[in-house]
Amino acid sequence: MAQENLLVVEDLYLIREDRTILRGVNLEVPRGVIFALLGRNGSGKSSLAYALMGCAGYAPSRGRIFFNGEDVTGLSITERARRGITLAWQEPAHFEGLKVRDYLALGMENPSRERMEEALAAVALPPLTYLQRTVNETLSGGERKRIELAAVYAMRPRLAILDEPDSGIDVLSLDDIGTLIRRLRDEGTTVLLITHRDEMVLVADQAALMCGGEVVRIGEPTEVRRHYARRCRPCEVVEPVEAPGGGYERL
Amino acid sequence: MSDFEAILEAYRRSGGDPSFLRSPKVGSLVVHGNQVLGANEVPGVHMETEELEHGVRVHVQVDPGARPERPVHLCFGVLPKEGRQEILSTFEIGEGAQVEFLAHCTFPNAEKVVHLMEAQVHVAKGASLKYAETHYHGEGGGTQVVPRARVTVDEGATFVTEFALTTGRVGVMEFDYVVDVAAKGTAELVTKAYGKGTDRIAVKETIRLNGPYARGLAKARIAVRDQATSEVVGTTEGNAPFTRGHVDCVEIVRDQAVASAIPVVRVHDDRAYVTHEAAIGTVDKKELETLMSRGLDEEAAVDVIVRGMLQ
């Protein structure tokens, strides 16, 4: 295992409800890059994100996860977060009664209003308005998504797993998201960018393509994007490992 | 330290700001056990008190049309480990008046303290009364608190109350409010409590919408853990045309705690519309994991979620 890789995933299998969701995923994410993980709906991207974060029900049945040279496969979410891993959820949770300012402060080592305002400004939300808002259902999906990204940015993690950061955000604002992702990297955070939108891959330094629970291609973002656009078919079925291939085309 | 200073310190620890209880510009009443330690009237707000064997009788009169600039602060407490305090109160809110009360009830050292609050409240036509009550019972679980109120809301009047017992132990709480609302009147009851250890929480909220276009909301937010129990009965009656009411109860349960919710909806007029929702469950997994992914351990994450719900 090369030490310059911040994240290394070795032969990872995940079985949920008798279905094999991940089947031997191998991945190396170098320190200080934006690494895009591209794939269609159902290809296993979000499941991999939850497995990397250590979410309940996503413990791998086989394989190992190394972070910063340490085997973190058996660690809890909290232990992983304290080592510098965090996840921006595709559909972020709502919290009754929790103010945005308190939500942002949760992950910050030394919470400061200045840093919170900077984080909200980075996702194009007026800080004075939003710091007082509550992270509840009164926020639109797009607002909640931006606050999730702001919370990750405020945390300054070593590894930010961004699960579909562009979903629920209007097309005109996609540049904001791209800018934020680059800013994360430039300020020292390694980014694992999970997306099904091929144009998002262009913000990345490296990319991989997932299909049917496997990483099937790793390379330059433009090359991976080209393969995805031209050849990838919907992941209709994720079959058990023992069964023959399902209704998708192998690359 | 005098009793007055001691009760102010307890008031501060329960979340109140003692400076309001010293200010001549702020209406206030301070009661320790059966002693009235301080009472300050402001224009339009009158308070009569009478010391009883085990408590105090209080009559609060707000003049018609009076609109005090600042909330009136009430502080009731028992500092010894044992005691009984009965607060027998009447509130008469005059026509068109607008007033807000902030009450703190504090029993920080309670090992065997009974606090009985028996209130008769009348909110006259077009008046508005907001009554927020915060309790602190210490960490021993030795308090029995029985807040009872019978409230009459006249035509076009508003009654809003929030009862919170979310810090420290509850002990035993038997909350029982009944509100009758006349035409175009509004009543909103919000009860929040966090039970731990062997605490026992019983909440009864009843709103009777008796006049046309009356509105009512009975809302409860309860969290219980360890071996605590809670039972919430929220009742709303639509007894007149075009009344609108809602019963809303959310309870979070952890460990071996037990919670129940009984929303009761009664409609006596086919033009009334009364709804209810009740949810009891453990902490939402996604909320929990989101907070843990920011570095909080499970215990701290649960605490953030529960305290958010009880905000």
Explain what this protein looks like in three dimensions.
The complex is a heterodimer of chains A (251) and B (311). The two termini of chain A are 26 Å apart. Chain A has helices at residues 45-53, 77-83, 100-106, 113-122, 127-130, 141-155, 174-186, 221-231; strands at 5-16, 19-30, 34-38, 62-67, 70-71, 85-88, 159-163, 190-195, 206-211, 214-219. In chain A, strand 7 (159-163), helix 7 and strand 8 (190-195) form a beta-alpha-beta unit. Chain A contains eight helices and ten strands. Mean pLDDT of chain A is 89; it is low at 236-251. In chain A, helix 3 (100-106) runs parallel beside helix 6 (141-155). Chain A has a single domain (5-231), classed as P-loop containing nucleotide triphosphate hydrolases (Rossmann fold), CATH 3.40.50. Helix content of chain B is 12%, strand content 56%. Chain B contains four helices and 19 strands. In chain B, strands 2-1-5-7-9-11-13-15-17-19 form a ten-stranded mixed sheet. Chain B has a nine-stranded mixed sheet with strand order 3-4-6-8-10-12-14-16-18, with no helix packed on it. In chain B, strand 3 (45-51) and strand 4 (55-62) form a beta hairpin. The longest helix of chain B has 13 residues, at 298-310. The A-B interface holds A 53, 55-56, 76-78, 80-82, 85-87, 89, 92-98, 106-107, 151, 155 and B 284-287, 289-298, 304-305, 307-311.
List keywords for this structure.
heterodimer, A: alpha/beta, Rossmann fold, six-stranded mixed beta sheet, four-stranded antiparallel beta sheet, 8 helices, globular, B: 311 residues, nine-stranded mixed beta sheet, 19 strands, 56% strand
The overall strand count of chain A is 10
* Beta-strand percentage range of chain A: 25-35%
Q: Roughly what is the average pLDDT of chain A, rounded to an integer?
A: 89
Uncertain runs of chain A are: 236-251
Write out the strand line-up for the largest beta sheet of chain B, numbering strands in chain order. 2-1-5-7-9-11-13-15-17-19
Q: Classify the secondary structure makeup of chain B into a structural class.
A: mainly beta
- CATH topological fold name of chain A: Rossmann fold
Number of separate helices of chain A: 8
Total count of domains of chain A:
1
Any low-confidence stretches of chain B, pLDDT <50, length ≥5?
A: none
Multimeric state: heterodimer
Task: Estimate the strand proportion of chain B.
Answer: over 45%
Return the string of H and E elements of chain A: EEEHEEHEHHHHEHEEEH
Total separate domains of chain B:
1
Largest interface: A-B, 24 and 21 residues
Give the end-to-end Cα distance of chain B, rounded to a whole number of Å: 33 Å
Main-sheet strand order of chain A equals 6-7-8-3-9-10
Helix content of chain A: 25-40%
For the sheet with most strands of chain A, the description reads: 6 strands, mixed
Summarize the main sheet of chain B.
Answer: 10 strands, mixed
Radius of gyration of chain B: 20 Å
